[in-house]
């Protein structure tokens, strides 16, 4: 699958999405939002894909919504039209979080506005040294609570840091992003592809059912009390202990070899 605005390919169970409008820093169009929303929904049922990587072409990850293609068009809509657009962008994030497969953001350059939230919605974020984040919604007269940013960001960096980033909209360089826990690793740009590739390969070769259930449980437990979380984890772990991958580990341990996981 490919589109004028993004490229898509699958190799060794790893799907790579490359936002592909480098001339406008990979700004998103209405069509691209809808296509990405639908792609992440379809990936829930694609057994050929175990890991997803998203990155950008050229010198940016994603600069957010295209000013001319989106703002200029949406401003002419009525209130219902504005709500339809905002719901669509939120559904992209919803589908990313509901996907029971790990998503890695390879942040090669600027991740601003919607681009910052897309990276935030990924499970792991690897950032090039010269890249930056900007949750810049307030800088353009909009609320910082957009596309789930006010829900996700406090859970990643804490409420105090999230308030600062969402209220002020300041740029966050790679060193600061790593310090506050916004990204998992910072690497030189020339090492970004290899670092993300190795991480994606490790996940793709791992126990995919266990990894997917881990993501599901983390998402579900955000709104649970401790007792509910403990019971939920007990039920989930009991199921996994009866799975083929756990037995494969045990057999490999007894035979002093590496386990071969099959995602069951």
Q: How do the helices and strands line up, and which of them pair or pack?
A:
Layout: E1 6-11, E2 14-19, H1 30-42, E3 51-56, E4 60-62, H2 67-74, H3 79-98, E5 103-107, E6 110-112, H4 114-121, E7 124-128, E8 132-134, H5 149-157, H6 159-168, E9 171-173, H7 174-179, E10 185-187, H8 189-204, H9 208-221, H10 226-241, H11 244-254
Parallel strand pairs: 2-3, 3-5, 4-6, 5-7, 6-8, 7-10
Antiparallel strand pairs: 1-2, 8-9
Helix pairs in contact: 1-3, 3-4, 5-6, 9-10
Summary, kept brief:
The chain is α/β, with parallel strands linked by helices and 264 residues long. It has helices at residues 30-42, 67-74, 79-98, 114-121, 149-157, 159-168, 174-179, 189-204, 208-221, 226-241, 244-254, and strands spanning 6-11, 14-19, 51-56, 60-62, 103-107, 110-112, 124-128, 132-134, 171-173, 185-187.
Structural overview:
The protein is an alpha/beta fold and 264 residues long. It folds into 2 domains: 6-204, 2-enoyl-CoA Hydratase, Chain A, domain 1 (Alpha-Beta Complex); 208-254, no CATH class. It has helices at residues 30-42, 67-74, 79-98, 114-121, 149-157, 159-168, 174-179, 189-204, 208-221, 226-241, 244-254, and strands at 6-11, 14-19, 51-56, 60-62, 103-107, 110-112, 124-128, 132-134, 171-173, 185-187. The strands form 2 sheets. Strands 1-2-3-5-7-10 form a 6-stranded mixed sheet, sandwiched between helices. It starts with 5 loop residues before the first strand and ends in a 10-residue tail after the last helix.
């Amino acid at each position: 699958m490919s589109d004028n605005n993004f490229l898509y390919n699958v190799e060794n169970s790893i799907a790579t999405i490359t936002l592909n409008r480098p001339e406008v820093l990979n700004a998103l169009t209405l069509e691209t939002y809808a296509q990405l929303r639908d792609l992440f929904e379809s990936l829930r049922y694609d057994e050929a894909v175990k890991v997803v990587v998203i990155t950008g072409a050229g010198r940016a990850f994603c600069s957010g919504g295209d000013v001319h293609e989106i703002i200029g068009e949406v401003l002419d809509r009525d209130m219902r039209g504005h709500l339809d657009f905002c719901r669509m962008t939120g559904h992209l994030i919803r589908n990313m979080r509901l996907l029971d497969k790990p998503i890695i953001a390879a942040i090669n350059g600027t991740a601003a506005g919607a681009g910052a939230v897309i990276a935030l919605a990924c499970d792991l974020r690897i950032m090039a040294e010269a890249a930056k984040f900007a949750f810049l919604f307030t800088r353009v007269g909009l609320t910082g609570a957009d596309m789930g940013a006010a829900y996700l960001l406090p859970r990643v960096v804490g409420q105090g840091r999230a308030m600062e980033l969402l209220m002020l909209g300041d740029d966050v360089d790679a060193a600061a992003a790593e310090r506050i826990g916004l990204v998992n690793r910072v690497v030189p740009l020339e090492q970004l592809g290899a670092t993300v590739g190795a991480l994606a390969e490790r996940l793709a070769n791992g126990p995919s059912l266990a990894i997917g259930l881990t993501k599901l449980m983390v998402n579900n437990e955000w709104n649970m009390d401790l007792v509910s979380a403990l019971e939920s984890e007990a039920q989930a772990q009991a199921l996994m202990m009866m799975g083929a991958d756990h037995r494969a580990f045990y057999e490999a341990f007894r035979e002093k070899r590496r386990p071969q996981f099959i995602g069951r």
